[in-house]
Each structure stands twice: as structure tokens, then as C-alpha cells.
Amino acid sequence: MAKVKKQNLKKKAKGKAGATPAKGAASGASAGGLVTNKKFGQHLLRNPGIVDKILNAAELKPSDVAFEIGPGTGNLTVKLIESCKRVIACEIDPRMAAEVRKRCSGTGRTNLEVRECDVLKEKWPIFDVCVANLPYQISSPFTFKLLAHRPAFRCAVLMFQKEFAERLIAKVGESQYGRLAVNTSLFVKVSCVCKVGRMNFTPPPEVDSMVVKIVPRYPPIEVDFREWDGLMRICFGRKRKTLRSSFCMTYTLKTLEDNYTTWCALTGNRPEKKSMKEKVLEVLGSLKLAEQRAIKSFALN
Ligand SMILES: C[S@@+](CC[C@H](N)C(=O)[O-])C[C@H]1O[C@@H](n2cnc3c(N)ncnc32)[C@H](O)[C@@H]1O
């Protein structure tokens, strides 16, 4: 009996300390008087040393227009407005938008524009530099929107969940290498700025983070991003299949059947003294030059 009571007490205590708030409810941690909301990934950066590393990596110029995603209570924003000509910040939570406006107006500067909106739905401004401690749940759609963004920006310095950042910077042959790394490396160069432990945030997330720097490639590669990404889905969609069978199963039906010679070469219907690599290259010969160049550099290694 005493044992059962003890267990019940233990359960109650655990329920209090480790309770997960209902979806969309405030997580309970307070940041400058505001209760953070888990739904919006509100993990505020509380280590000024990391803020400095992000801003140093961005190599800001006084003439820069900076685009900040999710300013929160303004931990990055207050420094950005000191270093840039103009800062445009996109914040989904009206409470945070009001807070960052209040905090920054206290500095006497008037170069901050806060847009209360969802960055994934908003039409983006023209900017030189993008800086963000991103809510992790939008990492992937945000990155693809950034890659497709024209005209190009000078650089983006972004905080991601560590595992996502590792997939971004992965090299050929590494287990994390996939569609994300290929798409990314075609358009931009990505490097690690620093790793950030979870205790640097209020409230701490359940994962560690990494800051990466993204620099667009110059001259820009002109490909239709949708078309290109479709191609990558074929290449990486069936991880256990070879590139050859992936193409046979999907791409060929629409494109390759029109081209009998290529179709034969790919499917081996007409025996040729060619290596698999040459056959695939032949198929890829029907693609645009930039696409071929990128595919040759990864898919056939
Ligand atoms: C990880 S917090 C970063 C806050 C602040 N920059 C900092 O480092 O302390 C992410 C911020 O992005 C905001 N946010 C979440 N989803 C968003 C979206 N789709 N569009 C714009 N802002 C968003 C959150 O409300 C939150 O303020």
C-alpha cells in the first residue's frame, strides 16, 4: 500500500515538472516578462557571445539592408540596427513584434521595420544579408525559399537544429548527403560558423543547434529551380535504387521514351560497349548544361 502511494506521489511530481504544454499553448518559460509559445519555436538566444558570432559571420556593412526572421524579443535585432542602414524583421507573433519594437525604439534608432507576418507566406524584400535564429519547424521550407530567392543576397547566417545543419553541409559519401545538400551546393556555399548547445536558449530546446553561413555562388547558375528539384526527388527519392533504375521508373516515362536511342542505352535494350557511367551521362545529355554539371559532380561519384 505504502509503495503504491509513493509511486502516485512520484507520478504527480513528474507531471508537474515535465509536463508538455498542449499544442499551441504557451510553454511556460518567461522571457523578459513574455511567456514563450512552443508553437512558434520560441527559444530565445540568451548568450551574447553567440549573438556576436552570428553578427561577425554576417560581416555587416553600414550600407546593408538586413532581413531578420523571427526577431522575438530582439536579442539579435538591437545589434543589427546598430550596424546596418535598415533592418526588416518578419515576426509571426504580435506580442513579440510589439516587444521588439518597444526595445529597439528605446535605443533612439528609427531604421527598424517589423512586419507581423508568416515569413513563408510573405513576399520577401530585397536585402543584402539575412540573419535568423530560426524556429526549427520551418527550416526546410525556409531554406528552399531562400535558395529560390532572387535577386541574390550577399549572405545568410542562420541558426538551425544541429541535425538539419549537418544535412545542409554534408559532402558526397557522407550518410547525411541527400537532396538538401545537393540542392544547396548547386546554388550556394554553406559553412559551419559554430555549434550551439541547448543551454544557450530560454527555454532550452530538446536539441542542440548549429549556426551556418550561406553564400550564393557567383555567377549564379540559371536553372528552373522547380524542374531541378523534381530531378533531385527522382535521384534521391528511392535511396536503395540505383540512379539508373530511378530514372527508368520515373523520369523515363515522360522524357526518355521520346528519345529512343537514349532509352535503349539506359535500359540496355540495345547492347553497347559502354560503361554504366557513360550510359547515364548519355541520358543526362538531354538535360540543361548546369543540371548536367551538377549531376556529374555528385550522382556518378
Ligand atoms: C527561435 S526564436 C528566435 C527569437 C530571437 N531572434 C532570439 O534569437 O532570441 C524564433 C522566432 O521566430 C518567430 N516565428 C516562428 N515562426 C515564424 C514564421 N513562420 N514567420 C515569422 N516568424 C516566425 C517566433 O515567434 C520567434 O520569435
TrEMBL record:
Highest taxon of the lineage: Eukaryota
Domain Ribosomal RNA adenine methylase transferase N-terminal: 50-218
EC number: 2.1.1.-
UniProt cross-references to InterPro entries, sorted A to Z: KsgA/Erm (IPR001737), rRNA_Ade_Mease_Trfase_CS (IPR020596), rRNA_Ade_methylase_Trfase_N (IPR020598), rRNA_adenine_dimethylase (IPR011530), SAM-dependent_MTases_sf (IPR029063)
Binding site for S-adenosyl-L-methionine: H43, L45, G70, E91, D118, N133
The entry's keywords: Methyltransferase, RNA-binding, rRNA processing, S-adenosyl-L-methionine, Transferase
Amino acid composition bias (Basic residues), ranges on this chain: 1-15
One Gene Ontology MF term: rRNA (adenine-N6,N6-)-dimethyltransferase activity
Bias type Low complexity, positions: 16-29
SMART domains for the chain: rADc
Start and end residues of each stretch annotated as Disordered: 1-29
SUPFAM superfamilies the record matches: S-adenosyl-L-methionine-dependent methyltransferases
Family: Belongs to the class I-like SAM-binding methyltransferase superfamily. rRNA adenine N(6)-methyltransferase family.
NCBIfam families cross-referenced by the UniProt entry: ksgA
Name of the protein in its database record: rRNA adenine N(6)-methyltransferase
Organism annotation: Cladocopium goreaui
